[in-house]
Amino acid sequence: MKTRVALLGAGRIGQVHAKNIAGHSSSELVSVTDVFASAAEELAGKYGAKVMATEEVLADSSIDAIVIATPTDTHSDLMEAAVEAGKSILCEKPVDLSLKRAKACLAATKDSRSPIMMGFNRRFDPNFASLRTAVADGKIGKTELLSITSFDPAPPPVSYVKSSGGLFRDMMIHDFDMANFLMGEAPVSVSAVGSAVVDPAIGEAGDVDTAVVTMTYADGRIAVIKNSRRAAYGYDQRVEVLGSEGLLSVENIRKTSVSLATAAGVTSANPEDFFLERYRNAYVSEWQAFLDAISNETPVPVSIEDGVLALAMAEASTLSSAEGRPVTLESVMG
Amino acid sequence: MKTRVALLGAGRIGQVHAKNIAGHSSSELVSVTDVFASAAEELAGKYGAKVMATEEVLADSSIDAIVIATPTDTHSDLMEAAVEAGKSILCEKPVDLSLKRAKACLAATKDSRSPIMMGFNRRFDPNFASLRTAVADGKIGKTELLSITSFDPAPPPVSYVKSSGGLFRDMMIHDFDMANFLMGEAPVSVSAVGSAVVDPAIGEAGDVDTAVVTMTYADGRIAVIKNSRRAAYGYDQRVEVLGSEGLLSVENIRKTSVSLATAAGVTSANPEDFFLERYRNAYVSEWQAFLDAISNETPVPVSIEDGVLALAMAEASTLSSAEGRPVTLESVMG
Amino acid sequence: MKTRVALLGAGRIGQVHAKNIAGHSSSELVSVTDVFASAAEELAGKYGAKVMATEEVLADSSIDAIVIATPTDTHSDLMEAAVEAGKSILCEKPVDLSLKRAKACLAATKDSRSPIMMGFNRRFDPNFASLRTAVADGKIGKTELLSITSFDPAPPPVSYVKSSGGLFRDMMIHDFDMANFLMGEAPVSVSAVGSAVVDPAIGEAGDVDTAVVTMTYADGRIAVIKNSRRAAYGYDQRVEVLGSEGLLSVENIRKTSVSLATAAGVTSANPEDFFLERYRNAYVSEWQAFLDAISNETPVPVSIEDGVLALAMAEASTLSSAEGRPVTLESVMG
Amino acid sequence: MKTRVALLGAGRIGQVHAKNIAGHSSSELVSVTDVFASAAEELAGKYGAKVMATEEVLADSSIDAIVIATPTDTHSDLMEAAVEAGKSILCEKPVDLSLKRAKACLAATKDSRSPIMMGFNRRFDPNFASLRTAVADGKIGKTELLSITSFDPAPPPVSYVKSSGGLFRDMMIHDFDMANFLMGEAPVSVSAVGSAVVDPAIGEAGDVDTAVVTMTYADGRIAVIKNSRRAAYGYDQRVEVLGSEGLLSVENIRKTSVSLATAAGVTSANPEDFFLERYRNAYVSEWQAFLDAISNETPVPVSIEDGVLALAMAEASTLSSAEGRPVTLESVMG
Q: With an 8 Å Cβ cutoff, is C127 touching chain D?
């Protein structure tokens, strides 16, 4: 019997989920909800689903699961309500922009009997997942130094930046989760620097567009994350882990495997444009993992705890960058 | 309104087509036909289609198009019958093992008012398609020398080899079509060598498992195709075109972008396993192209003529390899 | 007329210089000096040079230039004496382990009429030099974020570590100079973390073996340097510069261009073993640059000022790592 | 005691030898000979050697070895005379343009007690040598299919082409020797096609500028060589060997390891310009191998027999290309 799914949010990421829900042989897209009625209608129509209001969704006992792809400030409320209604939940990152609110949400939902999974899509990318398996299999011995390069192709509008919670909460949060995924534990302390060298207007809005965060772990290991809001050549998503016996790397995925050699040099294709292309397969695997957690009654691979942890790292980094000093995770977690 | 499609053949390649037909918003998989009833039922069931006999399909005026994924020796008969019934046709390669029969089929179907397209999937691979566009755009000036490397991961069973028509008709036919696609015309003459160095049993069955074919063109250009039935590292599919101003290449697609550096060297992932994986996207694009040809009433991108031409090159190569002399295409086309 | 050169120090790096001095058509290796007489004799004998004491070298007016490849704690004294004697000088890095002493040496030698060049060999590597030219040519627009990966193949003996001045002064000093070379100015502030995860004995000796330093520049640009004393796969020397219009990278140089594809993956050769192999060409170019500075009476490409600056960055990083806070360069430069 | 060497021929390749002879600690460049006195004088002067006439060289019993880097039509005569004079010989390829003359030279010199080595430099390239070792070590199991890509950066002047003996003798002869080096035996039969698509004037001069030769071996193995006189992107020198357990490849050596990623793609450096750059190390190793053969009294790694064999393959290919039929090696060897 197919899992009956309601989608909240018909934006860019909601559309990805709609396609994967409808295209999977074990799930059915029952409804789409969005404050913009036309967006909800168009997306619902494409997959033969209904348009429903959030209240209707929550009240409809035939709906098994909801996917939350709405604006960030609604995530916590919706998760709490959905738990109340007994639904399984897949929620887009972050839990909230406020760490306090996120922790409250975690507390309020911790007794849910249905799975609650956070949408850190990159964990499901076959390349990163393969790297993590190789680490776990001891291919490089003991891990020592993690390095994440994560550049967006182009900065978002300043209007978006203003309500985004800042680069650390909005963009680097994915990399914080990736660090947790690969290092297997949270860091003790973070040290962040950031500036607005891409676009001064981002700086005027109180945010940074280029940042480096160094993290230290209890056992002496170190991780470093580099973010930029702009990479003229495309979406740059690379990871390296140095261990006692070697180095594991994930390189970018190129648009094609074509190369052109002329007197001007040997030119290969750029990386995939952005996350919708780069992580297309990751979203499919993420959906599968969510369905598996429901049907097998196994723990979700990414929990609200994971979401709260990444958010705490973002909060600590924001503070560290602003005050020019290392910040312990403990101090922000309270 | 969706194009209503009947699938003939529920084997490995039929399953690929079924998924793409059913997954496309403009087509509907109406029926599946196979001599093995259980195979037809299973595949039909998966996509909510019916099981129908070939005669029923041809007689059903509600069916717009048929996809022929049956054994090779049925292709010509089915195409002729489907043209008679007014259906659009996508037929797997080759047209036939007999060039004479293929030419007869071409003659018999040449007045069809509905599209007839041959399933040379590689033309639709985004990488090869991009290379061809780059050639057409003059990125390497005038083309001079084409080189195709095409190795299967492992040889088929000898029982298959015996009824396959031989390596040139069964395997290299894809590369002949690729050469035609990239060079824009047929060669004048082919010169083939082949041997059974992978598996002597293939030689005892009268076939070769390793072969090189050199082709010459009217304007002096040259193409060379290398085939092997075995590449221990996976499916090796590469193309290079040398032109007056440079070289265009398509490299293999690796399973992941992970690499592992240890004292033993830097190890990257193998190429995709085989055609189902390597050409997954190509089959999707192929289906789109077929639907486009139907709805836009434009010429199909790969015609029966193309199929006959590739078959003639295979026939000439088989003869050349057996007799140790160059063979002109004209001599086999008659 | 050939430049007559005296070499002080017949160790590993002295041997590299001896070969390049003797092998150049415009220079002559006149003498070799070393506290180990047998080492001096062997090296001198190989190139037809004499063994001389330091005092003899300084007193010999026929000697034009000296190359200082002795232990670090002699560098400043030797440079001052050589300036006194009117010699041109090529001195291995660092100027001194003590920033104070290095600054005194700078002051004492600043009026030298003969060139004094510091041996930051990496600036002369054709790859890094080419990257810098591309930056200067505006190939990536305005630079924003520099990233240096610099891993040694294996940690030195703990006995060496104890007298090395620590990782930041001994190893990362090369990367500090590379940052200055590529960013075109000194950073305002450094923030360092380090630990001994490779070898606890290094930690017990009061040093670190793994470290990350983040540097901020007056205009908001950021640089990050990663160091490890151990890379099981060889000497890892990579640089990336992100700019407003793209990314410039220097990849490792592999021992061979051979690759092996088997069922186990596609394996390429490891990077060059260590600096003697990786920077062989850089040392040759460095020697050429020194001869050019002498004969053309042009400024040396790497000055004592550069050496003092890199040392100040090392001192600031040592302090930052120890005290867990960012340290401004101004505060250590005094 | 140093081997005393006389160099015959002060042209481009003679200059490479002069540098390596003079730069080696076990050999001394005694004299240079050239029909152009000024060329001989300049080169001799650079390395402190004398200018001598050929007769003087042969008569000078203090000279141990001669390097023959003169025009091809003098090679056989000079080798015979040098053997007569008891000299060790390193002779540039080919033995002669005439297979008959080469065979006569082989017969005339076969009793020489001093080493006679042919200058097939590519055998000494560390990359090809490493690939061959890997083949010999069974890294890919049993070899099945060899593929050589060998493109010059630009065609020579037509005047040169006219006296070159044609592409197969002048250019592909290196690749024939590489095939023998890697396959470990001579082919049974060759099948060649060639045309003048790069420059019609080359065709008018009776030669080809683009060619493919397929070779078959007694045990069924196959080799294919592709040559072009023009690769706009530089000197393209690649080799692949497919075996029962995998593929070994040698890729091009790039000028630098720098890459530039912009919106236009990811651009890497071109291959080395031409043989002087690409095979710089190979010439050094070749010279070492020659000195080793002299001092160790071991067989030379490349003999006149090897030179005659490669020439026979060139002759067979020339014939095959002209007559459009496979030609056995036996038929030309007589």
A: yes
